[in-house]
Amino acid sequence: MNRCKSLMIAVVLALAAAPAGAQVPPASAPAGLADPDAALVEELVVTARLPGPAWWRVSDGDSTVYVLGAPSLAPKRQQWDRLQFERRLEGANLVILPLSTLKVTLAGAPGAALSYLRLKSGEPFEARLSGTERARFVAARTRVGMPADHYKTSHPLAAGLILIGDYREKENLTTTDPSKLIKLLAGQAKVKVLQRSYDVGPLLRAVAKTSEAAGEACLGEVMDEIEAGPGRTRAASRAWAEGDVAGALDAERSYERCIAVTPGAAAFDARVKADMAKDIETALKTPGHAIAVAPLRTLLSQGGVLDRLRAKGYEIKTPGDLE
């Protein structure tokens, strides 16, 4: 089950971050595919006045939630100025974090296992390929230091998800920072942490139902990212640490552009945004202040977390307004 768990983790992280990284659907995407994060709320994309990463503020009367926009991908242990965070952590009544935990419900476990078995193969994925496609895949998995047998799957999307996870691990890139550090610091300060988990079963089933054409497009995007290397991601992470929101949004997005073709991806994305907005709204019912952390595009897109809260009448201040 370790291999199954590895694929589940790859699936949920990809689906959670995918629309947030998407701008243009791939040419092979089904007609009418709507990318929920193609457009940003431009007036919210503002460089921070204060040192360190950018914060937004959501207010309602005597309650406030300070929202830190986080990179969806960053070098592990990325250094950043924590002064504003430490100021806001002091006296906070809650810290809301983006999802990073998984669960398989009792009802969903059989379906998840069945979907995994459908994706398994008795031979390496590259045995299905030929010519330049096979050479390119072999070069990519060689670069990340993995043998052919590591990719025994029958679906190109599953192969791509496992491969991108291996690449990012090799390059010390993570989707969980700075949330992991913030959770630790909140615990040390004895501040309550709220972090949702989601049933991974439906997400794994979504991979099994993705068309071969869409899966091949995604695998191509994965190999594009691997061949390009981590330079763009690292530059965007440095921009994030300096409060340069536009620069931080320029992170390498590659395969995330096509993950939206996965059945259920748009609905899952909308659910995650709605849950984050709901958690912030609930926190605003308690006098005082709280902290929330959300991926930048999830936060700043049209229909994203801040856009949803603004539509309900909450006051939103940008990083250019905060002192």
What does this structure look like?
This protein is an alpha/beta fold and 323 residues long. The chain has one domain (2-317). It has helices at residues 2-21, 83-89, 109-119, 131-143, 156-170, 179-188, 201-209, 212-228, 231-241, 245-248, 256-259, 265-283, 296-300, 305-311; strands at 55-60, 63-70, 74-75, 95-103, 173-174, 193-199, 288-295, 315-317. β1 (55-60) and β2 (63-70) form a beta hairpin. The longest helix is centred in the first third of the chain and has 20 residues, at 2-21. The radius of gyration is 20 Å and the shape is elongated. Residues 15-34 have low confidence and may be disordered.
Q: Tell me, rounded to a whole number, the average pLDDT.
A: 83
Termini separation (Å)?
Answer: 50 Å
Query: Strand percentage, roughly?
Result: 5-15%
Q: What ranges have pLDDT less than 50 throughout 5 or more consecutive residues? A: 15-34
Helix and strand run:
HEEEHEHHHEHEHHHHHHEHHE
Question: Care to count the β-strands?
Answer: 8
Give the CA-based shape. Answer: elongated
Count of individual domains: 1
Major pleated sheet: 6 strands, mixed
How would the blueprint of this fold be written?
Elements: H1 2-21, E1 55-60, E2 63-70, E3 74-75, H2 83-89, E4 95-103, H3 109-119, H4 131-143, H5 156-170, E5 173-174, H6 179-188, E6 193-199, H7 201-209, H8 212-228, H9 231-241, H10 245-248, H11 256-259, H12 265-283, E7 288-295, H13 296-300, H14 305-311, E8 315-317
Parallel strand pairs: 2-7, 4-6, 4-7
Antiparallel strand pairs: 1-2, 1-8, 3-5
